[in-house]
Amino acid sequence: MSERLPIIDATAGSGDGAGLAVLPDLKAMTRDELTAFLKEGFGESRFRGDQIFRWLHMKRARSVEAMTDLSKKLRQALTERTRVGGLELEDVRTAQDGTRKLLLRTAGGDRIESVIIPMDHSFTQCVSSQVGCKIGCRFCLTARMPLRRNLSASEIVDQVLWAQEVMGEGERVGNLVYMGMGEPLDNYEQVVRSLKILMDEFGANFSSRRITVSTSGVVPKLARLGADVPVNLAVSLNASDDETRTRLIPINKVWNIEALIGALHAFPLPPRRRITIEYVLLKGVNDTRADAERLVKLLRGLRCKVNLIPFNPWPGAPFERPEERDVDAFGKIVLDHGFTVTVRYSKGEDIGAACGQLDGNQVAA
Ligand code: SAH
Ligand code: SF4
User: Fold this and answer.
1) Range 261-279 average pLDDT
2) Is the pLDDT of residue 285 over 80?
3) What is the pLDDT of residues 127-155, one digit of tens each?
4) Of 228, 184, 231, 170, nearest to 206 (Cα)?
5) What pLDDT is attached to residue 355?
6) Which residues lie with the beta carbon below 6 Å from any ligand 1 atom?
7) Atom in ligand 1 nearest the alpha carbon of residue 236
8) Which ligand is located closest to the Cα atom of residue 282?
9) Pocket flag, ligand 2, residue 142 (CB < 6 Å)
10) For 223-250, what is the mean pLDDT?
11) What number is the average pLDDT over the span 270-281?
């Protein structure tokens, strides 16, 4: 057995802040990475990579010890020189509408949240990619937390594994949205690795059509994402002029609306798919007829649909939700220009589980 362990970025984002030496995390590796790792470090075959990947991502093993069909010798070697990363489940809260919020803890003691939302025929899970967020959108509660750190691929994937654990007989997460805490494209490597793991047929086996990554508009990463994994893209546009957008989403100063829309036209969309344009409606800020008309002009010729999100309030927020008739009037203008429009009245508001309400603290019901 060779002593040399291949250097791969399997520990990124998993620092515990205490400066402890970190062993390679088996759960943060794609199947190819795991196979290469086991071959180089332990002289094991491709078969072993598939077997261990299945244990971790299909059978949800939380330790090497649980992998009962591995030899004792291999289990011991793996236990000494590797670890199985992930999260602890601290609490599950259920809202009146059936939305469940999982409160999860990292090894370093940070808390993150993931939300399971009941839909017509299945469930959609909203996953977090960072502890906090550094983009600083003024309407978002997560922005009130400084960015503490990126989540590792195993911590992102583990949110989905815990959801499967928590769900009842016959319940299943059908769709994943990267719309929880954090900016996914600011944690690019780990997010892409988590997508590859979740899409693997030896693991949770999600189809790429059932996964959506949402970004506030980190333009240089957009083309890379499209080339790396064929998932659905959602973009938080949230304003139709640069002055308003910069005020709401500070990175608009770096990549303005023109740069963002240009990147969306260039995005390698798989056939028959459309980009989702998210637009948080804030009363008196970006919800007028003139805003709607500017918005449809911006989106002309883009393969997209529009998702309007009436603002979800949080204590001390400097914005209000528009009246329903104003939301409808805005939607009608966009619809009349030939776009598909949906209005997302977020679920789980009573437990602080709606869009923009996640901050790692449970809300007393
Ligand atoms: N960071 C990524 C994904 C997480 S935020 C992004 O910004 O796209 C997911 C969605 O929630 C975004 O479209 C964001 O604009 C929206 N959002 C944030 N705070 C909100 C709030 N208080 N009310 C309604 N939507 C909000
Ligand atoms: Fe970060 Fe998205 Fe919240 Fe903006 S809306 S602060 S990018 S999580």
Assistant:
1) 96
2) yes
3) 999 999 999 999 999 999 889 999 999 99
4) 231
5) 76
6) 139-140, 179, 183, 214-216, 236, 238, 278, 280, 309, 311-312, 355-356
7) 13
8) 1
9) yes
10) 97
11) 96
CATH number assigned to the domain covering 26-81: 1.10.150.530
Is the CB–ligand 2 distance for residue 143 below 6 Å? Answer: yes
The answer to whether domain 26-81 and domain 88-351 are alike in fold is no
Would you list the domain boundaries of the chain? 26-81, 88-351
Hunting for tokens 């966009």 — which residue is that?
A: 334
Q: What is the mean pLDDT of residues 199-207?
A: 98
Residues that are catalytic: 113, 355
**Which one of 126, 140, 252, 254 would you pick to mutate in the ligand 2 pocket, going by the greatest count of ligand atoms within 8 A of its CB?**
140
- What CATH class does 88-351 carry? alpha beta
**Cβ contact 245:257 at 8 Å:** yes
Q: What is the pLDDT at residue 348?
A: 79
